[in-house]
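Hi there,

I know you've been waiting on this one. I reran it after we fixed the sequence typo, so this is the corrected version. Both the input and the resulting structure follow.
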Amino acid sequence: MILHELLDYTTLRLIWWVVLGVLLIGFAVTDGFDMGVGALLPFVGRTDVERRIAINTIGPVWEGNQVWFILGGGAIFAAWPPLYAISFSGFYLAMFVVLAALILRPVGFKYRSKRPGARWRQGWDWALFTGGFVPALIFGVAVGNVLQGVPFRLDDDLRVFYEGSFFGLLNPFALLCGLLSVAMLVMHGSAWLSFKAEGMVARRARSYGSLAALATIVLFALGGLALWLFVDGYRIASAVVTDGPSNPLMKAVARDGMAWFANYAARPWLLVAPALGFLGALLAFLGLRAGREGLTLLASGLSVFGVIATVGVSMFPFILPSSLDPRSSVTVWDSSSSHQTLFIMLVSTVIFLPIILAYTAWVYRVLWGKVGEAMVQDEAGHSY
């Protein structure tokens, strides 16, 4: 009870905003290299054996990595119900495309080696490419649209009305963010292949990864510049109530061209987030060129962290702004579950998240080591 009283509503809302960010970054860092490897598969592997090497670097871990995606969705559903309702209804077709692409991944892993024909296996290789490239692109496009504001509104009964379309999501700024997402995850996938694969697969991954790291730096800079010049941010124009009821309509919101940069002006130390995005990509480039495998993987993960954290820090306290009716915008302070629900969920998270992390670390330790030609051709093994 003492802890329950110490953690007031404002603190719990802030904690769960951080937890949501951690889960989304965890998904991007872990399953991100799976998607990056999938997007690279037709290019780093010129022969069937080489493609099997690439596949087997992620084959044993991709299912566990995808758990972070489920945890993120669950956290949104339980901690931020309005965010879940708006995003999963407004982005319904986009999410359907993502899920369809992700479904291709397990099917591709299971069916690719069922027949020896080259056309059969190449077809599944491109399916695995789709399962990596398409989600990476659409996740970035979704973030680009969130930064611009999503065309939804809430009525007085807090019912959601979304007035956008799937093709409306594919605007120039959102596509720029999508390309940044692809470049970032290809860089991360290249770092993973450099770390786990042997031979020509690792060498080609270093070449493609170097280009992707440079593209990440350039696209991240262009995204920031475009955000500065062309995209209006949002700010709360009324009194900020951090412990009030979860009703987004109880505030006033104004559009402001510099709003997404206000947090950095007020707290310059927050610039560490975009700095890590740039620095991590630069170190990943240098690591790939120098063959420093461990440094490269760490640096690419740091870049992923920095890029995603930059979005969260820039938008705070907004989570999902509305371009149609700014007053309906969802923020950290007016869209959470109840104080009791957030507290119970936090206790559960404190208990179970360390268990998940410990098990994940144990799995990676058991599967430590490189994947080479001898391993995938060993008939006694269980390779794909």
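Quick highlight: The first helix runs from residue 2 to 6.

Best,
R. S.
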